[in-house]
Structure formats: C-alpha cells, structure tokens
Recover the amino acids of this structure.
C-alpha cells in the first residue's frame, strides 16, 4: 500500500501570502496519478489538481501542482480568504486503488 | 448530481445500507464509488462498481463490503456488515473519473450506536 504523508499538518498564513503544501508518497505513484482536493467544513471535497499538475475545471490559476519523484507539491501563489480550508492529496493505481493523505489544514494567521 | 440516502443511525453488529441516486445523466458508462470520512479525520476509499457490475474494494474493508448497481433506477448502493463505532463517518458517493474524483455527493453522516 502506498502511504501518502502530508506536511505540515497545519499551516498558518495570511491572505496574500504564498502557500506550499507537501505530499510525499512511500513509493512511486503510477504515472504521477496524484490529485489534490480542497475541503471546507460541511462540504464534500473539491477537485483542484489531477495528474499532479493539471488544474481542474474552474480552478483559479493561483493553484498549481508539481511533482519530483515521490514528492508532490501544491502551491497557492497568493492566498485569498476563501482558500483557507483542509487540503488532501490522493493517489491512484496501487492497491488499495485510491489512497488519501491525512490532510493539511491551512488556517488564517 | 449525486445524492446519498439511508439511515443515519445503525446499531453495532448490524448492516449499514446506503443508496446513491444519480441524476442529470445516465449511470451507464461510468464507475461509481463510495468514500468515507470519520468525524474530524481524513478520507478513506471504500470501493467502486462499474455500470456493468464489476467491483474493486479496499482490502481493509473487503470482507464486509458489497457495492451494487441498479441501472434501471440510476442508483448504486453500499452495504457494510458487522459495523462498529469505528464505522461512524460521513459517507460520500462519487463518480470515478479515471484517476480522480470530480463529482461528489453532499455526504451523509452515519452513526453507529446502540
């Protein structure tokens, strides 16, 4: 089983700042099938990025994803107030077919 | 759109049963999943089913899980047997879009308690 470890657990930043969220896989992720989701309280997760770096429909270009080996990064270039939420990474391909990281909470400083 | 329905309270050792109704499109041609989230915790993939009925389950739950599909009703269902308090969670249905999930239901909280 591929384990995804997200860091930091909590990130405290101010609007306008740059956020860098990390997701490290315990082994290679098939074809960089790594997605990022944003979840706000009481809501279902919202797909932001798939295939490590492709933005989903309607996602602002301040969100970007990158990959280097087993390390994946979600970057939010300039934080807007609505960006403060919990972020999850998710891999596809290794049994179990889908696994999620434990999440990073992005909170207002 | 996807909408979960089913009992919000299940007794320990009993079977949890949920249904997801797909509207605005046909259930055929896609794969459909269940994903859960215990209160205050992360997401756990339960499994998926194709419109033709082929399934793939999380090995950690495989012995207790059954996902089925009813194409005539545009619905798919989850059954989880022998539940314990550890199965208390928000259960989401979602449409599998290859390597990721774009379409999600709003989620339904199921509490396991006597």
């Amino acid at each position: 089983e591929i384990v995804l470890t997200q860091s930091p657990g909590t990130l405290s930043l101010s609007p306008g700042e740059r956020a860098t969220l990390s997701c490290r896989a315990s082994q290679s992720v098939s074809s960089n099938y790594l997605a990022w989701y944003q979840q706000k309280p009481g809501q279902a997760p919202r797909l932001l990025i798939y295939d490590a770096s492709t933005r989903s429909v309607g996602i602002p270009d301040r969100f970007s994803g990158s990959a280097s080996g087993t390390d994946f990064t979600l970057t939010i270039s300039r934080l807007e107030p609505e960006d403060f939420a919990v972020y999850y990474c998710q891999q596809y391909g290794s049994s179990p077919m889908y696994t999620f990281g434990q999440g990073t909470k992005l909170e207002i400083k | 759109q996807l909408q979960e329905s089913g009992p919000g309270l299940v007794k320990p050792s009993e079977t949890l049963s949920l249904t997801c109704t797909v509207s605005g499109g046909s259930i055929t041609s896609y794969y459909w999943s269940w994903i859960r989230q215990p209160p205050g915790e992360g997401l756990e993939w339960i499994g998926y089913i194709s419109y033709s009925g082929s399934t793939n389950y999380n090995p950690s739950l495989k012995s207790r899980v059954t996902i089925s599909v009813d194409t005539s009703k545009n619905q798919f269902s989850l059954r989880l047997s022998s539940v314990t308090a550890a199965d208390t969670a928000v259960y989401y249905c979602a449409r599998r879009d290859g390597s990721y999930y774009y379409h999600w239901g709003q989620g339904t909280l199921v509490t396991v308690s006597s």
Remarks:
- The mean pLDDT of chain A is 96.
- Chain A touches chain B through 25 residues (CB under 8 Å).
- DSSP finds no helices and eleven strands in chain A.
- The longest strand of chain A covers residues 19-25.
